[in-house]
Automatic annotation (TrEMBL):
This is 4-hydroxy-tetrahydrodipicolinate reductase. GO terms for cellular component: cytosol. Its EC number is 1.17.1.8. Belongs to the DapB family. Residues 1-103 form the Dihydrodipicolinate reductase N-terminal domain. Coiled coil: none annotated.
Length: 238
């Protein structure tokens, strides 16, 4: 598979290592220092573009890849208020798109565990639920995209919580997500159900970025040759 790497920071470099080891070819690498090389013609040489940049650049980058007729795997977080616009553009261009707030197999299993736990905790009103995420200090967005995915599933099941907030809260209708920035944390997510009697807590801790990178390459393999909008549940058959 021919891959264009849009974003060549921590994730772009981790993805390159895994993709090359699996025999894929990197036909384009775009970082902030060679943005001028990011043309529709250059991206069109790839089968799939893998986009890991920043909340502010992701949408324009994704659209340029659709203009080139190239499938896009996107891991950038913090841009989801423009989700509808991206999906409409993908459909207009008859493109292929796969976004995941977290590509690691472990976190995608953890998403399933979170759903199940929220479902069985729903009738137990004595338990309050709160969340915590810990990442490195270079992270630009808060809460993390993964925390937002987890929180949305909790809100679907726990009717006593109406919205998530990214600060300490004593309002029982708010699902508190506390964000901590501590180096070199690659990504830790906790969901805690707390009562006067006991606590139930689930935690996922990434030890490095290999899981995110190999999941992104897996997603690119899945998307190659397809049209439409997909997600990691479909990639992993969950
Ligand atoms: N979905 C998932 O599984 C994961 C998602 N992420 C997300 O991926 C994104 C990138 O993370 P990470 O690699 O750690 O971040 P880095 O800051 O290490 O890398 C991002 C790179 O993109 C560059 N960049 C910024 N703007 C543009 C642009 N317009 N075009 C091309 N390149 C650009 C940055 O350059 P410069 O530094 O000079 O600004 C930087 O080199 C973040 O949004 C993060 O939240 C991260 C890990 C896993
Ligand atoms: O910025 C990061 O590093 C990470 N971002 C993703 C997120 O926002 O959830 C995934 C992972 O936690 C690492």
């Amino acid at each position: 598979m021919k891959i264009a790497l849009i974003g060549y920071g921590k994730m772009g470099q981790a993805i390159e290592e895994i993709a090359v080891a699996q025999g894929h070819e990197i036909v384009l690498k775009i970082g902030i220092e060679n943005l001028g090389d990011f043309t529709v013609e250059a991206v069109a040489k790839a089968d799939v573009a893998i986009e890991f940049t920043s909340p502010h650049s992701a949408v324009a980058n994704i659209k340029k890849c659709f203009d080139a007729g190239v499938a896009v795997v996107c891991g950038s977080t913090g841009w989801l208020e423009q989700w509808d616009e991206v999906i409409a553009y993908c459909q207009e261009k008859q493109g292929a798109f796969l976004y995941a707030s977290n590509f690691s197999i472990g976190v995608n299993l953890f998403f399933e565990l979170n759903n199940y736990l929220a479902k069985i905790m729903a009738p137990h009103n004595d338990y309050d639920v709160s969340m915590e995420e810990i990442h490195h200090t270079q992270k630009k967005d808060a809460p993390s995209g993964t925390a937002i995915t987890l929180a949305e599933r909790v809100l679907e099941h726990i009717g006593r919580k109406k919205q998530w907030v990214n600060h300490i809260s004593d309002n029982p209708a708010e699902l508190e997500i506390i964000s901590e920035r501590i180096d070199p944390a690659p990504g830790t997510h906790k969901i805690k159900y707390h009562s006067e009697i006991d606590d139930i807590e689930i935690i996922h801790t990434a030890h490095n970025r290999k899981g995110f990178a190999s999941g992104a390459v897996m997603a690119a393999n899945f998307l190659n040759g397809k049209k439409g909008i997909y997600n990691m549940k479909q990639v992993l058959g969950l």
